[in-house]
Write a structure and sequence with these properties.
With about 300 residues, the chain is of the alpha/beta class. It has helices at about 35-45, 65-80, 100-115, 130-150, 160-165, 165-170, 195-205, 230-245, 280-290, and strands at about 15-20, 50-55, 85-90, 120, 155-160, 180-185, 210-215, 250-255.
C-alpha cells in the first residue's frame, strides 16, 4: 500500500528474519532444518526467511536444477509449516542472461505456491551495473507477467541497479503492477546515508522497499580480506528501517568464518545455539530481531 507493506487489515508490518546462504553452498543445511528455523522464530522473533537459490555456480540451478528446486522447496515448506513468510530468491547477478530459465522456474513456483499467502518472490538478487530501462526492467516485466498469470497478488520484490543499491532509479521508471516492492541491499562498512537517501526518494514516489540482504560488515560479507564490523552505521540503518517499518532479512544463516555468518563453524543447525556459538555480527542481528517483537 503505497510505500508500506501492510497486513490484511491495512496495518503496516515489519518482517524480520534471516537470509539463507547460497543454498548450493549451504553444506550444513541451516535454512533447511525446521528445528533450527523454529528456534529463530520462537527465540529471536523471526517472521520471515529468505531462500537464496544460487543460479550460476557449479552445483547450482543451471547445472543441477532438480537439487536446487528440492533445496528451495524444503525452505519454503518448512516456513509455511511454521507460519512464517518466505522469500523465493533467484540468487543471480546476471538473471537477465537466464530469463528463459527464470520464467519457467517462477511459473512453476507460482503454480505450486501462489495460493499460499506466506510466499514472496524475488526474481533478481543483485543486478550489476546494467541499464534499468533496457535490461533489468524488461526482465522483471517478463517474470512478473508469468507470476501474475497464476498468482494475482502475492508480493514480488524487484532487484535494482548496481547490486540493488539504486532503488530511486527503478522507482523513477517503475514496473507497472500491484504488490510490487523494490530491493535495497546494504553492508554497513560500505553503504551509508547516500543509499538510505535513494530509498527515501523511492518511497517518496510511492514505492515500497524491502531490504532482502544486509550485514554489519564490508560488502564482501566480512571475509579475512576485509575484517571488522561497523556497528554504529548498522545501528543508523536500523534506526531508519524501524522508523519506516521497512522489512529485512539478514545475511547469512549459516556457519562459517565470515563475520556475516550467523554461527561459528561446526555449530549444530538444529537451533538452541549459545552465545558462544554466535559469530561476528550476530549478537547485533539477534538484538535487532528482538527489539520490536514479531510482526
Amino acid at each position: 500500500s503505497g510505500p508500506d507493506l501492510v497486513d490484511e487489515h491495512g496495518a503496516v508490518v515489519q518482517l524480520k528474519g534471516p537470509s539463507s546462504m547460497w543454498l548450493n553452498w549451504e553444506a550444513s543445511g541451516f535454512a533447511k532444518n525446521p528445528a533450527g528455523v523454529q528456534f529463530v522464530r520462537d527465540d529471536w522473533n523471526g517472521s520471515v526467511i529468505r531462500a537464496s537459490m544460487g543460479i550460476e555456480p557449479a552445483g547450482a540451478f543451471l547445472t543441477d536444477p532438480d537439487k536446487a528446486k528440492a533445496d528451495v522447496r524444503a525452505v519454503i515448506d518448512n516456513a509455511i509449516a511454521l507460519g512464517m513468510y518466505v522469500i523465493i530468491d533467484w540468487h543471480d547477478h546476471h538473471a537477465h542472461l537466464h530469463q528463459e530459465q527464470a520464467v519457467a522456474f517462477f511459473t512453476e513456483m507460482a503454480m505450486e505456491y501462489g495460493d499460499t499467502p506466506n510466499v514472496l518472490y524475488e526474481p533478481f538478487n543483485e543486478p550489476e551495473s546494467v541499464s534499468w530501462t533496457t535490461v533489468i526492467r524488461p526482465y522483471h516485466e517478463a517474470v512478473v507477467a508469468v507470476i501474475r498469470a497464476v498468482d494475482p497478488d502475492n508480493v514480488i520484490i524487484l532487484g535494482t541497479p548496481v547490486w540493488s543499491q539504486n532503488v530511486d532509479e527503478a522507482a523513477g521508471s517503475p514496473v507497472v503492477g500491484v504488490n510490487l516492492m523494490y530491493t535495497l541491499h546494504f553492508y554497513s562498512c560500505t553503504h551509508s546515508q547516500p543509499q538510505r537517501s535513494r530509498a527515501d526518494t523511492a518511497r517518496s514516489l510511492g514505492h515500497a522497499v524491502f531490504v532482502t540482504e544486509w550485514a554489519a560488515t564490508d560488502a564482501d560479507g566480512g571475509t579475512s580480506a576485509h575484517p571488522g564490523l561497523c556497528l554504529s552505521e548498522a545501528q543508523a540503518w536500523h534506526n531508519w528501517m524501524n522508523a519506516k517499518k521497512i522489512s529485512w532479512t539478514a545475511w547469512k544463516f549459516d556457519d562459517c568464518s565470515d563475520e556475516s555468518c550467523f554461527f561459528r563453524s561446526g555449530s549444530l543447525e538444529t537451533g538452541g545455539q549459545t552465545d558462544a556459538q554466535l559469530n561476528g555480527q550476530v549478537p547485533f542481528v539477534h538484538d535487532c530481531m528482538l527489539a520490536y517483537g514479531r510482526a
